[in-house]
TrEMBL record:
It comes from Dyella jejuensis. Pfam families: DUF4139. This is DUF4139 domain-containing protein. InterPro entries: DUF4139. Residues 189-479 form the DUF4139 domain. Residues 1-24 form the signal peptide. The lineage of its organism: Bacteria, Pseudomonadati, Pseudomonadota, Gammaproteobacteria, Lysobacterales. Keywords: Signal.
Amino acid sequence: MTIPPRTALAFACIAFCGSSLAGAADHASITLYRSDSSGLYASNGDNNVTDGYAVVREQRSVTLQAGVHDLVLGDLPNNLDAEAIALGFPGDGAKVVSQRLLLGQGANAALTGLTGSYVAVLGENGQPLASGTLLRASDDGLVVRNSGGSTTLIRQYAAVSTSGASFPTGSSLRLRVDAARDGQALAVLSYPMSGIGWRAAYVATLQPGNRCSMQFESRASIANRSGRDWRDTKLVLIAGEPQFAKASGPRPMMMMRAMAAPAAAEALPEQSSLADYRSYTLPAPVDLPDGSISQVPLYATRMLDCERTALYENGGNWLPPQPMLNSDFNADSHSSIVSTLRLTAFDSLPAGYLRVLTADRQGVPQFIGEGRINDTPKGSDATITLGTAFDLRGGRERTRFHVDPAGRSMDEAFRITLTNAGDSARIVTVREHPNRWREWKLTSSSMAPGEQTADTLEFRVNVPANGKATLDYAVRYTWAAGDRPQS
C-alpha cells in the first residue's frame, strides 16, 4: 500500500504490527441520531463536514503481555469525542492505566496510527536508518526508540515498514494496559463520533381522480462521512432532538457514493420509545462505506388520503402589545397563490423531506414540489408547500379604515380578488389574520368563513375557469380604557 509522498521522497508500504495494534472489527453497533445538516447529504467537494452524532460500540481482539505495556487501537473515525471514549476488558484480566487519542489528520495520519508499533525506517536507496518502537510521527520527522532504549530522530526517509498486511486509517487510541497474563483478550470500546447522521426521506405519488390520495413511501437516508467504512453494522436510529452541548471539530470528507440498502424491502425497522424520543432498530446489519448515502425502508409503502389546497394568505399570527392605529399596518398585498398538501400521520413520522410526484398525460411520474415534515406524532397533521400555482393569482385592497378614539374602536374592510386562467374551476382558500389587536369581530362578509379563530379568518372561494371571484369582509377592533393605542 502506497502513502502520499513526503517532500521529495516517496513513502513505501507500511503495515501495522498485530501484537501491539488492534485493527477495527466489523459487526459494530451504532446508535445514530438524526441530523438535518445539508453538508452530510451534499454531493459537492466540501471537505469540512463535522455535523451529525452517533454512539459506536465495538469489540477488538488484542494481544496482551503480562504487566504494564502499550498497545494501539487503530481505524477509529477522524472526528470523535476524546473525553467520552470508554474501553474495558471483560473480567479482571486487564485494566486500562491511561489512554491517549492520536488524531488521524494531516500528511502523517497513517504513520500516527503506527505509534507504539515496531517499525523499520528505510532511506532513499533502501538502506536501514533505524528500527524499533515508533514514538511519534510529525512534520519534524519520526522518533524511534530501539531495543536498547536509545531514541533517534529521522528527518529524511523514504519508507517505513513493519510486519503485517495493512495499516490503520483514521484516528488511533494509544493505551497503557496492565495485564495479569499474556494472551488474546477481547476489548469492548465505545465512543461518540460525528460526520455521520440520518434523516427521513418520503416520496408521495398522487393518484388520479378528484379525491386526494397518494402512495406514500418512507425511508431512512443514512449519510456516512466519518472517515471510516462500517461493515455488517447493527443500526439503531433515534428520532427526536436531544441536546448536544459540545461543538464538533473539523474532519475530512470523502467523495459520496450512492449505495443500495442491503436489507430486504419487506424487512422493516422495529420501532419503540426511548425516553422522550423514538428509536428504530434495523432488522439486519448494513454496510456504510465512507462517503456514501444509504437508504433503508422505514415503514411499509401504503396508500394515504390527503388534502390539497390553493392558499392565498395575508398577514401573520403576530399580535402587537397595544392596538395599532397606523393606517399602513398590515396593508401588504401580493399576487402569489401557493399549493399546499396536508396528510395525517399514520404513525410517528420522524422529521425529513417529502418529495411529491404526480403523473403527466403519458402516465410518467413528474416532480411537483418538496417540503419539510417536522417530527409528527401519530394522528397529527403535516402540511407542506408544493409551490406557486401557475394559473391562479390574488389581489388585496383595503376598502375602508376608520378609527373612533372616543368609542375605542376601529373598523377595517378589505376586498380580495382572485383570478383563474386555467380551464377548470378552482377553490382557493383565503386566509386573513386580523392582527391590529386581540379583540375583534367579523362585522360583515360576502360569504361565511369556513374557519374562524382568535387570529385567523379563512374563506373557501370558488373561482370559475378563465374567470375571477371577489371576497369582501370587514372587522371591528375594540379596546379597553387601560389599553394605549399606537398611532
